[in-house]
Design a protein that fits this description.
The complex is a heterodimer of chains A (356) and B (431). Chain A has helices at 28-53, 67-76, 90-95, 100-108, 117-120, 131-145, 164-175, 206-210, 222-237, 267-274, 278-288, 294-316, 336-350; strands at residues 82-84, 152-157, 180-186, 189-190, 193-194, 214-218, 243-248, 352-353. By secondary structure, chain A is an alpha/beta fold. Chain A folds into 2 domains: 28-321, Rossmann fold; 323-356, no CATH class. A 5-stranded parallel β-sheet of chain A has the order 1-2-3-7-6, sandwiched between helices. In chain A, strand 2 (152-157), helix 7 (164-175) and strand 3 (180-186) form a beta-alpha-beta unit. With 431 residues, chain B is an alpha+beta fold. Chain B folds into 3 domains: 2-118, RNA polymerase II/Efflux pump adaptor protein, barrel-sandwich hybrid domain (OB fold (Dihydrolipoamide Acetyltransferase, E2P)), CATH 2.40.50.100; 150-190, no CATH class; 209-429, Chloramphenicol Acetyltransferase (2-Layer Sandwich). Helix content of chain B is 24%, strand content 25%. In chain B, helix 2 (150-159) runs parallel beside helix 3 (175-183), helix 7 (258-272) packs across helix 8 (318-333) and helix 7 (258-272) packs across helix 9 (407-422). The longest helix of chain B has 16 residues, at 318-333. The chains are: A alpha/beta (356), B alpha+beta (431). The A-B interface holds A 46-47, 50, 52-59, 108-109, 254, 257-260, 262-263, 302, 305-306, 308-310, 312-314, 316-317, 351-355 and B 6-13, 34, 44-50, 52, 83-90, 93-94, 96, 98-99, 107-111, 121-128. Strand 8 of chain A pairs antiparallel with strand 9 of chain B.
Chain lengths: 356, 431
C-alpha cells in the first residue's frame, strides 16, 4: 500500500520542506509568536495537571503533545469565526483569547464553563463525545441564512469519529454545503482504545464518502496545520463546503488525570512520538536559521513561568460561586415562576445556621 | 515561614483512598514547587504527586505501603513561600494558607461525594425541630434512589408509605409492593421468632487443618468449574480378586482392600487418558499435563481431612501400591502425616464408602484435574446375565475441572474405572 499523504512543512528535525499543494509565507515575528503560543499552552497544561494532582482541580484533560494541532488551527481562525471545542482544546481557547483562569473554573467545579461563548467565538467545552459537531453544523447553517462570511470549526477526536452525531453532522454539512471545517485531532487513542480499533481506513478518507474533501496533516507541525486550516476556512468562506482535516498527532499524556495509560500502551510508543515533539522542531528551526537566540527562548520561558504562577494563585484563590447565580443564566428573560423559585431557594439557604 | 500540610487529594473522580507506593523525598529535603514528592496508587491509576509548596520537608506523615483516606495529611513542609507566590505571582493573589480548605471540609469537586465519616459538622436548619423518624411501615431502609414510576410514587404518598422502606426485590417498586407495605402492621416486625442461647453454643476457632481445608476448598470450588459424573458397577469380581490376593505370598504383610483395586483401576484409567491428569495454570495460561501419577488419598483423620499423596503411583506394582497405601493411611490416621507428604498430588481418590454413603460430589484438591469418590459396596438387586441377582454394587463419582476436561473425557475415565472393577483381569495382566 502506498504511504498515506501527509502534509508537512516543518520536519521533526526543524527543516522546512515543500508540499505540492500547501505553502506558507511566514515572517520571523509570526513564527516567534507561534513558538510563544506553543510554549505558553504547554506550560498552562503542565500547571493545570499539577493543580489537579494537588487537589485544586477535580479533573484535567491534558493537551500535552497536541499543541501544534491546536495552536496551528486556532491561529488560522479569524475574528468572528466560531470554534466548537471538545474538552481538550486548551490551545484553541488560548488563541481565541479565553482567560485560562476561566477555563480552569470549570475543572475546579466552580462553574459549568465560565466564559461567554460569544465574546471570543469559543463555545463552552462539550463533554458529550462528538455532540459539538452537530452544534457546529447547525450554527454554520444558521450563518448561511444570515449570509455571513464567518466560518465555523468543529473539533473532535479519533474516538468521536465513530459517533453517530459526528456522522450525522457530516451528512448535514455536506448536503447543505455548510461553512464548517471538521478538525479531527487523531491523537491515536480514544481513552484506551487505539486507532486500529476505530477505523480500517485512514480517518481523512472517510470524508469522501460523505462528499467533501479530507486531508491528513502532520498535527505536530504548526506551520502545516496553519496552512491547511487556513485553506479550508477560505474554501468555507467561498461557499465551497466543508473540509475534513485529520491532524495526525499523539496524546502524550493520559486521557484525563483519572486515567493511567501505562496500563494499556507501551512506553516505547511515547518515546517515538517524543522525537516528533511539536515545540522542539520550531525551536530548532528558529535557532538554526538564526531567527531567534537563547535570550528569546529564556524570555518566553520566563513569561510562561509567570503565567503559571499567576494562574496558580488565581485558581487557589478562586471563590465559590454564589448559589443565586444558577438562576441567572438559564432563561434569557426573567419571569415570575423563576423569581418565585429564586426567592424560595434564597430563604431555604438562609434557614441554615453554622454549627459553632 | 509556616508549616504546611499537604492532604491526600482525590486524583481521580470520586476516589476515597489511595496507597502511598513510594516517597521520593525524606524529612530534611528541600522541595520546589511541583517537584514530584511521591507516587500513589488509587483504584484507577498509579500517579505521582507534585509538591504544592516550596520549602523543607519536616515529616512524612504516612509510610510507603500504607493506604489512607482522601483528605489525610501525608507530608508536612516548612514553607518559605506559599505555592501561590512563585516567580512573578500577581500581588493581589492571596497566599495559599489563607485559602486552604477548612480542616473540617472535604472538597467534592466532581464524583460521588465524600465518605460519611469524612464530613464535618453538618449545618443545622434554624427553627426546625429535628424530626423523629417514625417508621410508618415495615422493614429495612435502603440508601440511594428508589426506582418507582410516578403513579406508584403518588400511591405511596397517599398511603403514607415510605418507598425507601419497602423491601426491594431488585426491580422497580410496584403498586403491589406499596399496597402490601401499607397493609403490614408494625407489630408484625415486633414479634420476631428468633431464639438463641449463647450458653448452648460452642464457638471453635478456625485454624489448623480446618483452616487449610477451608482455604483449599474455597479456592478450588470458586476457580475450577466442577462437573461430576457417576456410574454404578458390579464389583463381584473385584471382591473375588481381593480374596484371592490376600492368600498370595506376594501380598504378605499387605492389607489388600477393595480400595487397592480401585486405586489400581483409577491409575490405569488415568494413564490411558492422561489429559485428566492435568493442572490449569492460570498465571501462564497453560494446561500442564502430568506424565506421572501422584495419587492423593483423602483420609478422614482425628485432625480432620488430610490428603496424603503416593508419588509415582503409576510406576508401582500392585503389591507395592498396596503397601504404600497401607502405610499412608496408617500414618494419616495416627495424625503423623507431614505437610510435604500432602503436596504435589495430581489426582485423588476419596473413599467415602467407608462412611456408609453411596456417592457425593467431591471438590477437587486445588490444582488437580480430577477426584474420584468411591461409594460403599452394597448388596443390590442387579440384572446379571438377564436375571435379577443380588450382587455387590458400588457407585463411583468423578468430579473434574471443566475448564480443561470436557464431559466426554470425564465420562470415559469413570466408565473405564468401572469397567476395570467389573472385570479386573486386565489389572493383573500388567503385573
Amino acid at each position: 500500500m502506498a504511504q498515506e499523504r501527509l502534509v508537512q512543512l516543518l520536519t521533526p528535525e526543524g527543516e522546512r520542506v515543500e508540499d505540492p499543494e500547501y505553502s506558507i509565507e511566514i515572517s520571523t515575528e509570526e513564527l516567534k509568536a507561534l513558538y510563544r503560543d506553543l510554549v505558553m499552552v504547554r506550560r498552562f497544561d503542565v500547571e493545570a495537571t499539577a493543580l489537579q494532582r494537588q487537589g485544586e482541580l477535580g479533573l484535567w484533560a491534558q493537551s500535552l503533545g497536541q499543541e501544534a494541532a491546536q495552536v496551528g488551527s486556532g491561529r488560522a481562525l479569524e475574528q468572528g469565526d466560531y470554534a466548537f471545542p471538545t474538552y481538550r482544546e486548551h490551545g484553541v481557547a488560548w488563541c481565541k483569547g479565553v482567560d485560562p483562569v476561566q477555563l480552569l473554573g470549570m475543572f475546579r467545579g466552580v462553574n459549568h464553563g465560565g466564559w461567554d461563548p460569544n465574546e471570543n467565538g469559543f463555545q463552552l467545552y462539550t463533554i458529550v463525545i462528538g455532540a459539538q459537531t452537530l452544534h457546529a453544523t447547525g450554527y454554520a447553517m444558521g450563518l448561511m441564512r444570515d449570509k455571513s462570511d464567518r466560518a465555523v470549526i468543529a473539533y473532535f477526536g479519533d474516538g468521536a469519529s465513530s459517533q453517530g452525531d459526528v456522522n450525522e453532522a457530516f451528512v448535514f454539512a455536506s448536503v447543505f454545503q455548510a461553512p464548517v471545517v471538521f478538525f479531527c485531532q487523531n491523537n491515536q487513542w480514544a481513552i484506551s482504545q487505539p486507532i486500529e480499533g476505530q477505523t480500517r481506513v485512514p480517518l481523512y478518507r472517510r470524508a469522501s464518502g460523505f462528499g467533501f474533501p479530507g486531508i491528513r496533516v502532520d498535527g505536530n507541525d504548526v506551520l502545516a496545520v496553519l496552512a491547511v486550516t487556513r485553506e479550508a476556512l477560505a474554501k468555507v468562506r467561498r461557499g465551497e463546503g466543508p473540509t475534513f482535516i485529520e491532524a495526525f498527532t499523539y496524546r502524550m499524556g493520559a486521557h484525563t488525570t483519572s486515567d493511567d495509560p501505562s496500563r494499556y500502551r507501551l512506553a516505547s510508543d511515547l518515546e517515538v512520538w517524543k522525537l516528533k515533539d511539536p515545540i522542539e522542531r520550531v525551536k530548532v528551526h528558529l535557532a538554526r536559521t538564526g531567527q531567534a537566540d537563547s535570550v528569546f527562548f529564556a524570555e518566553v520561558n520566563a513569561q510562561a513561568e509567570e503565567m503559571a504562577a499567576t494562574l496558580r494563585a488565581k485558581i487557589i484563590g478562586m471563590p465559590d460561586p454564589d448559589p443565586d447565580e444558577m438562576f441567572a443564566h438559564v432563561y434569557a428573560e426573567p419571569h415570575a415562576p423563576l423569581a418565585r423559585e429564586r426567592e424560595e431557594f434564597k430563604n431555604y439557604l438562609a434557614s441554615f445556621v453554622d454549627q459553632p | 515561614m509556616a508549616e504546611q500540610q499537604f492532604r491526600l487529594p482525590d486524583v481521580g473522580e470520586g476516589l476515597t483512598e489511595a496507597e502511598i507506593l513510594r516517597w521520593y523525598v525524606k524529612a530534611g529535603d528541600e522541595v520546589t514547587l511541583n517537584q514530584m514528592i511521591c507516587e500513589i496508587e488509587t483504584a484507577k491509576a498509579a500517579v505521582e504527586l507534585p509538591s504544592p509548596y516550596v520549602g523543607t520537608v519536616t515529616a512524612l506523615l504516612v509510610n510507603a505501603g500504607e493506604t489512607v483516606a482522601v483528605g489525610t495529611p501525608i507530608i508536612s513542609i516548612e514553607s518559605l513561600t506559599s505555592a501561590g507566590s512563585g516567580t512573578g505571582a500577581s500581588p493581589e493573589a492571596p497566599p495559599i494558607q489563607d485559602t486552604e480548605l477548612p480542616k473540617t471540609r472535604t472538597a467534592v469537586l466532581v464524583g460521588y461525594g465524600v465518605k460519611e465519616d469524612n464530613q464535618g459538622p453538618r449545618r443545622h436548619r434554624r427553627g426546625v425541630a429535628p424530626v423523629e423518624e417514625v417508621p410508618s411501615v415495615v422493614v429495612e431502609r435502603h440508601d440511594g434512589p428508589v426506582v418507582a414510576k410516578p403513579p406508584v410514587r403518588k400511591l405511596a404518598r397517599d398511603l403514607g408509605v415510605d418507598l425507601r422502606r419497602i423491601r426491594n426485590t431488585g426491580g422497580p417498586v410496584s403498586r403491589g409492593d406499596v399496597l402490601a407495605a401499607a397493609e403490614k402492621r408494625p407489630e408484625v416486625e415486633l414479634s420476631p421468632a428468633i431464639s438463641y442461647d449463647a450458653a448452648r453454643e460452642e464457638r471453635l476457632p478456625i485454624k489448623g487443618v480446618i483452616r487449610e481445608m477451608a482455604k483449599a476448598m474455597t479456592a478450588s470450588a470458586f476457580s475450577a468449574p466442577h462437573v461430576s459424573v457417576w456410574i454404578k458397577v458390579d464389583v463381584t469380581r473385584t471382591l473375588k480378586l481381593v480374596q484371592k490376593l490376600r492368600t498370595e505370598s506376594m501380598f504378605n504383610g499387605v492389607r489388600v482392600s477393595p480400595l487397592l483395586i480401585v486405586a489400581a483401576a483409577f491409575i490405569k484409567a488415568v494413564s490411558e487418558f492422561p489429559k485428566i491428569n492435568a493442572t490449569w495454570d492460570e498465571a501462564t495460561q497453560e494446561i500442564i499435563i502430568r506424565g506421572y501419577v501422584n495419587l492423593g488419598i483423602a483420609a478422614a483423620t482425628p485432625r480432620g481431612l488430610l490428603v496424603p499423596v503416593i508419588h509415582e503411583a503409576d510406576s508401582m506394582s500392585l503389591p507395592k501400591l498396596g503397601s504404600a497405601l497401607m502405610s499412608l493411611v496408617d500414618t494419616a490416621r495416627e495424625g503423623r502425616t507431614l505437610p510435604e507428604e500432602m503436596k504435589h498430588g495430581t489426582i485423588t481418590i476419596t473413599n467415602i464408602g467407608v462412611l456408609g454413603v453411596d456417592g457425593g460430589t467431591p471438590i477437587l484438591p486445588p490444582g488437580q484435574g480430577g477426584i474420584l469418590a468411591v461409594g460403599q459396596i452394597t448388596d443390590t438387586a442387579w440384572v446379571h446375565k438377564g436375571k435379577i441377582k443380588i450382587r455387590p454394587v458400588c457407585e463411583l463419582t468423578l468430579s473434574f475441572d471443566h475448564r480443561m476436561i470436557d464431559g466426554e473425557l470425564g465420562s470415559r475415565v469413570v466408565a473405564r474405572v468401572a469397567q476395570l472393577l467389573n472385570d479386573p483381569r486386565e489389572l493383573l495382566a500388567t503385573e
